[in-house]
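Notebook B, p. 112. Complex prediction, attempt 2.
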Amino acid sequence: MSLHLDHLAWSVEGRLVVDDVDCTPPRGALTGLLGPNGAGKSSLLRLVAGVQQAAHGAALLDGTDLLTMPRRARARRVALVEQESSATAPLSVREAVLLGRTPHASRWGGFTAQDHAAATRAIQEAGVQALAARRLATLSGGERQRVHLARALAQEPDLLLLDEPTNHLDVHAQLDTLAAVAGLTARGVTVLAALHDLNLAAAACDHLVLLEAGRVVAAGGVEQVLRPEVLEPVYRVRCLVLEHPETGRPVLTFAPR
Amino acid sequence: MTPSEGSAGAATGRGRLPAWAATVAAALLLVLSVTMAVTVGPAEIAPTDVWRSLVDHVRAALGATVDPTATLGLLHDGIVWDLRMPRVLTAAAVGAGLGVAGAVMQSLTRNPLADPYLLGLSSGASLGAVAVLVLGVGVLLPVAAFVGAVAALAAALTLAGSLGTITPARTVLAGLAVAQLCAAGTSFVIFWSATGDSYREILGWLMGSLGGATWSSVAISLGAVVVLLPVLLASARTLDAFAFGDTAAAALGIGVGRTRWALLTVVALLTGALVAVSGAIGFVGLILPHAVRLVVGAAHHRVLPLTALVGASFLVWADTAARTVFEPRELPVGIVTAFLGAPVFALLLWQRRSASGDLA
């Protein structure tokens, strides 16, 4: 039982952006969604989150199709962290995280003690306790990304979708974010993350799916996907794969063809 | 304390009036404002007499054998109940409605400069009103204004919808197109056919005025507020979820397109009804929501009720000033709200100069 993306397809203005994507990211693992710009990574995440309606296919989480679920019920199982999102309203960090409780809270009443407890847990798990009283607009890009992660965690999802979670972050903040994600997968949350940095993917992911022009061109373990003969035609570069002396994981270097 | 610490405190409650206290205070202020405003004017009337007269009128209406005019005397009773009270109550209803409509509009379009008239509502209403005032179209002015407002909204939403998903940007641009067209139509009618007499009447209406308020104005504006305001207040949680934009709202389980259509329609009906009785009174729906957010933060379940109460009191006093400052001449209340509102808006902008660029 896990996540199964079942022949998902979506097109815009007659162009297939997501083309018959069929893959099975394992449960309780971090699956990296790789591919060059425009390969359809973000679009695929938006389809699975139900933000964009798929033209075809299903996203089965433990056998239930997420795409045909009622919106609120789906938002209690799936959370999405966008690449960049800014607020126009002057929210505090805690208020922003509490918004994650929207699909759980009743439409009329205020937030319950349970909602507040879930927000507090999410703040701790994302490691932003020190920021909780701050105003969102005063945070750095990296701090804000962590707050968005906390907001998604407050939804208490089984499936977490991250769109370039380490974009614009310095090395330390990148590792911090991935460490927080590792904590989630350890307690059974399935994470699907679009990533640009192949070395980061090599270091942190359990499973990889490589997209090109909306199609899956490779899927499997890190060593299976991060091979020169797989990457070179997709990214149109020369690629050398080394072995990390400490972790034994692949380290990649690139050169123009 | 650095500016950033100050704004953090403002957002989380330290050193700030609790929201419930602010709301109770605003409710008391509104009751006081209505009672006081009725006493202001050429005829001197004591606030306590207003209350006693109110009790008499209620008892008389319930069938008790009291002379409801005994407290104030026939003349003053007429001034209070036929002239001032309908005007003050209309002002309160219009102020409350415009404030909340503006707050909702700002959140739905994610635009801090949005106001209730954004979708061409006031321009449509003006066109309807001018058609009555100048061309002598044989319908009541409020009806024509309301029809004009709703027609403008329908045109704007149809245009926005025909472009694809109703995004904030499309909504604003479509409204702009409709507003420009209606404004041109209004100017054309005035330029072509207005006479000297009708100019002042038209100008008064275009700037917003409560001068002609009657008990039917109260019925229209208060009725719209009583029916439609609860719908907007109940959508506080949904509006909160729009804070990070459409995608984030959708990921939180909100039906974004459907919600935006529904709430824009409610805002338009409310605004249309208010514009129909008062003309396009500016600034209330633009500034008050921002001022209230500075006091109680951005959460809509606090912002919306407080904006309604403060908006009501604000417009009651603005209208009282409009009818008394240059007695016996009367200013359109829209001029007063702008005179009061523009400096307050400038002050808010100035206070927020240290914050990191987000004005809302």
